[in-house]
Structure formats: structure tokens, C-alpha cells
């Protein structure tokens, strides 16, 4: 039976054309009998940089949007344009979900819980004591936050921008419980992290490398070892070149599908107040990715 409620939602970021988020949200809303329109708001099409998100958040509130998803490159830039942050978003300094209500824009972060849920679903028994993380942007920070919850003890953060890696390291140190501190190493290249990769339990790619379908990978295949697991947050395509090479090397792998569905489900709940059926959303996502691949 139709719910009767209506929700106008947007996605702000760059290169949004291939995004499956609109269809994923709208299909679940249809199943729940909710009127839900999910609009792409592409920074590139509007000739705006990452800071343009501030103007767009203001305009979305004025136009009656119920909420927004924020993606690359504005997850950190959007923070200063919001009225309030959830505890997790404040700790991370990054927002991927904005909820409007009572004249306020409140920022949340569902990326970290999305990665956590996806990891537990796909690599539940994997060792996480020593992990190498590629990318210290908004997504990388969320992944690191999740890794702390999963029990990481040694984390190596690789990012070309040293200050960004140090900021992420500080987030991890603050998030770690007093009785289980995390040792954080930083490096500006995978070459500098060679020794850490040689002993790591796992590797996470939290950079956009792999989205372009040009065969690019964030590190040489020779650095992959059969005993390690490899996760990629990229979900377009699901089988990135990094994951393909990891499978050839004998590694267990985790694609970005689990994270994107879990974060979408939590975003849907925050914006609508309705708990979606996450398993149904996984089935929707599988159908959408299969259709996109044909």
C-alpha cells in the first residue's frame, strides 16, 4: 500500500553519470510504497569545484529537499556549511549524508558503517591486525574508522598528500579505545610502504583509481601476496583491475558493492525515518550492476 509520504533527495559530486545510487534508492522506495525522487547534481556540469557544495546545500534546503548524498570531491568540504554534525561525522571530519529538518542541515557519515557492514558480510573471518590503506580522503578516513571498529592494530596510510595522511592518522588515534591503541604509519607512495605490504593481513583501496576502466591499478601486482586479502571501495566496475590481479595472485577479495549498498540503506533510513530491507537492496544492486554490464 502506498505510504503517501514524498521525499526529494539529491546526490552532489563529480562524474555522477554512472552512479547507481538513484536507482538503488528509488527501487527500495517503490517496494516500500514511498514517493522518492533522487536527483543527480553534478559539479562538473555546473562548472563548480568542491567548495560549490556549500551553495548547493543552501539551495537544496530552500527547494524543499529532504536530504542529500555527498560524494567525491566534497565530503570534507561540505562540513563547514552544515548546522550540525553527528558524532561520527564530527570525528571523521567528513560527511556523505545531509538531512534537512526544522530549518537545519545535519551531516552524517554512513560510509564507515557501510564499509564495516560490507566487510563483515564478505570477509567476516579475515584477519585485520595489520592493514595497508590507500587513500586518506573522505572515503579513506571512513574506511580507517571502520577498521578501528574491526580491531586493526597496525595501520599504514598511503597518500600523496602528507598532511592528509597525518589528519587521518589523528582520527584513528582518537577513535581507538584506550585499551587497544592503533599504531599508524604514513607513506607518500606504495614504494615507501613496501615493507608494510610485505607483512600486512590486508589491503584496502580507498582511492578512485580503478573507476576509469582503463586498466589502472593503485599499486604493482607484484606487491600482492596470496595470504593477504584485498578490498576495493570502487563499485563501477565491481571487478576492478586491482581485484582481478589480486584474484590471480590467490588473494581473497572484497568488491565495493557491499559498502555502497549498506551505506545507501543507512542513508535511506536517516532521510526517511523508514528502515529499508537491506537484503532486498543487495538484490536490487546485483540486478542493476548486471544490467549496467550488458
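^ C-alpha cells above, recovered residues below v
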Amino acid at each position: 500500500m502506498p505510504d503517501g509520504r514524498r521525499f526529494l533527495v539529491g546526490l552532489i559530486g563529480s562524474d555522477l553519470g554512472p552512479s547507481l545510487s538513484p536507482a538503488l534508492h528509488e527501487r527500495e522506495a517503490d517496494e516500500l510504497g514511498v514517493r522518492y525522487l533522487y536527483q543527480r547534481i553534478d559539479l562538473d556540469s555546473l562548472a563548480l569545484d568542491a567548495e560549490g557544495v556549500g551553495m548547493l546545500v543552501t539551495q537544496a534546503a530552500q527547494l524543499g529537499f529532504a536530504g542529500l548524498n555527498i560524494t567525491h570531491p566534497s565530503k570534507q568540504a561540505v562540513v563547514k556549511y552544515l548546522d550540525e554534525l553527528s558524532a561520527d561525522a564530527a570525528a571523521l571530519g567528513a560527511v556523505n549524508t545531509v538531512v534537512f529538518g526544522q530549518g537545519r542541515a545535519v551531516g552524517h557519515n554512513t560510509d564507515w558503517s557501510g564499509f564495516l557492514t560490507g566487510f563483515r558480510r564478505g570477509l567476516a573471518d579475515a584477519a585485520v591486525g595489520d592493514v595497508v590503506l590507500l587513500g586518506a580522503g573522505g572515503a579513506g578516513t571512513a574506511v580507517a574508522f571502520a577498521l578501528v571498529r574491526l580491531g586493526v592494530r597496525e595501520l599504514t596510510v598511503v597518500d600523496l598528500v602528507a598532511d592528509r595522511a597525518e589528519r587521518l592518522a589523528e582520527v584513528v588515534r582518537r577513535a581507538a579505545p584506550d585499551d587497544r591503541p592503533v599504531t599508524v604509519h604514513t607513506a607518500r607512495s606504495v614504494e615507501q610502504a613496501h615493507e608494510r605490504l610485505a607483512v600486512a593481513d590486508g589491503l584496502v583501496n580507498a582511492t578512485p583509481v580503478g573507476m576509469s576502466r582503463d586498466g589502472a591499478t593503485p599499486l604493482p601486482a607484484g606487491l600482492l601476496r596470496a595470504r593477504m586479502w584485498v578490498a576495493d571501495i570502487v563499485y563501477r566496475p565491481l571487478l576492478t583491475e586491482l581485484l582481478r590481479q589480486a584474484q590471480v595472485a590467490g588473494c581473497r577479495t572484497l568488491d565495493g558493492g557491499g559498502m555502497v549498498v549498506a551505506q545507501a540503506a543507512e542513508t535511506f533510513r536517516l532521510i526517511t525515518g523508514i528502515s529499508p530491507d537491506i537484503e532486498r537492496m543487495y538484490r536490487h544492486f546485483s540486478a542493476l550492476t548486471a544490467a549496467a554490464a550488458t
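The longest strand covers residues 6-13.
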